[in-house]
Amino acid sequence: MTEEKTLLTEVLKNSFIFKGLSDELLREFSNLAVIKSFEKNQEIFGEGKPALGFFLILEGQVKIFKLSSKGKEQIIHILGPGEIFAEVVLAGVETYPAYAQAISPVKVAFFEKSGFLKLVQRKPELALNLIALFSIKLRSLVKTIENLTLRESGERLLHYLWELSEEGKKKDIELRVNKSHLALLLGITPETLSRLFQKYREEGLIELERNRIILLKPEKLHQIIRSF
């Protein structure tokens, strides 16, 4: 077995959509996959392009985003190893509804939709996993819309940190993305993000250490979030 196939098998076993499947079925899905590599900042697909299949991330990070008519970028998701994107094609969508771009060197497994759906028809347990995945993605999208339309910039950042901390269970948080991408994800400018980080440091809520954030007062942070 090649190194890439070994990596694919391990990621498949731990990916939400493929959990609980037999080794035999995992091998069938592995045989369907085409491994593709993308350089940092390389486009994986564009909005409106024919939706030929979906992707499973093996290595690296991918951002899913939309562009306004004026070219303003709004990040919808930032995804990493084991996560799936463009699975909406399995619901009959003919074109990709957003852009996907590598934000680091990326390796993905591409699954052509017709071959994948044939296997799903034979294995109903996979269909249940798909339904659960669609539900999770829908809840995530609703949260993103709520964040961008109903909350001020400071609220967005605090809610984001609270979710990363698993609602206060983790006090030492590793940021998965750089600050410029985080600003785009939150729908604010990098300058505003820097001011907010400085504000919450001065208030004793957080401490910054490169790509890590330490929650100094998680209870107080929770109280602030609940007051919004």
Automatic annotation (TrEMBL):
Keyword DNA-binding belongs to the record: yes
Cellular component annotations (GO), alphabetically ordered: cytosol
Secretion signal, residue range per the UniProt entry: none
Keywords for this protein: DNA-binding, Transcription, Transcription regulation
Cyclic nucleotide-binding domain boundaries: 17-137
Domain HTH crp-type, residue spans: 151-219
Domain of life assignment: Bacteria
CDD domains: CAP_ED
Pfam families: cNMP_binding, HTH_Crp_2
Gene3D superfamilies per UniProt: Jelly Rolls (2.60.120.10), Winged helix-like DNA-binding domain superfamily/Winged helix DNA-binding domain (1.10.10.10)
GO molecular function list: DNA binding; DNA-binding transcription factor activity
Protein name: Transcriptional regulator
Organism field: Caldimicrobium thiodismutans
